[in-house]
Structure formats: C-alpha cells, structure tokens
Write a structure and sequence with these properties.
- The protein contains five helices and six strands; from the N terminus they run βαβααβββαβα.
- The chain is globular, with a radius of gyration of 15 Å.
- The strands form two sheets. A four-stranded parallel sheet has the order 1-2-3-6.
- The protein has a single domain, classed as Alpha-Beta Barrel (TIM Barrel).
- The relative contact order is 0.14.
- The chain is α/β, with parallel strands linked by helices.
- α4 packs across α5.
C-alpha cells in the first residue's frame, strides 16, 4: 500500500480530510507494522500546506522504510490555502527538491518515482494538470538530481 495524502490537505465542500500531514501519515503506518503499509510521498499534496516540512517527511518515513511511491512537484504559495504547481526545479517554488531527493537517497529509496502533474506549456493541448512536456522536463530534472546525488 502507498496511501496518498489528501489533496488538497484541507476540507473541500465541507467534507473532512483524514491524511493531511505527517501526523496523519504516521498514525496510518503505525496501525500495521509492515513495510507493505506505506505512503506515497507526494510533495504536491503535502507541499500545498506551507507549514509541512517535506524534507523532514522524507527523512521520517524514509528512515522507517515506509515510502512506497513518490510524486515530486514544486509549489509556490500565495496564502495558507492558495498555491500553484510550478516547474520542478527548486528555484521556481518553495520546495528544496535537491534536499528531498537527498533524503530519499540517504534512506536508500529504490521504488517508483514520478513527476506529479504538469503544466500545459508550449501550446500543448491535453488534460488539465497532466501536461506531457512539463512532466517530461520534470522527470529529466529529477533524474539529473538523482545522478548528481549518487555521484557526490
């Protein structure tokens, strides 16, 4: 299992949320002590809340070997509940993608990883939130970070 945190991590249409941050994820993995009971480390969902430390989440759940899937995306906040998904490199948003990837590498993460969502760029027409070009650029950026971390 790789539970995905609520997206966004706050109530929508008055419906309550359950997994909105590190505490909720920890409660879930504590229910059954098995590496099969893990999480999706989604930097977009968790990063929507500017008060969640994604690097710390990567450390906490990486150390426990409970990260079973990773979605990587950078975000930029306008307020506590308004944000935009931005290009993956750290310089374009508020998340330190190098630090997040470094924590994953430190804890020997070897599971699936993908860029989370994508913007429509270069005149692309497609499904909103799933731009092909931006996701292709994102995965190449993430692979470059991973290779640099491995070689350092």
């Amino acid at each position: 299992m790789a539970i995905h945190p609520d997206d966004p991590p706050w109530s929508v249409f008055g419906l309550p949320r359950i997994i909105t941050g590190i505490d909720g994820l920890q409660r879930l993995v504590d229910v059954v002590d098995s590496p099969s009971n893990g999480i999706t480390l989604c930097t977009g969902s968790l990063g929507a809340n500017p008060h969640i430390d994604i690097v710390e989440a990567a450390h906490v759940f990486g150390e426990q070997n409970r990260i079973n899937f990773v979605h990587l995306r950078n975000v930029q906040h306008e307020s506590d509940t308004k944000f935009h998904e931005v290009s993956h490199p750290s310089e374009f948003g508020e998340l330190d993608m190098h630090a997040i990837m470094s924590k994953l590498h430190e804890h020997k993460y070897d599971g699936p990883m993908r860029p989370d969502h994508g913007r429509m760029i270069w005149g692309e027409q497609g499904t909103p939130g799933y731009g092909l070009y931006d996701r292709a650029l994102g995965i190449m950026y993430l692979q470059g970070l991973w290779e640099a971390i491995e070689k350092s």
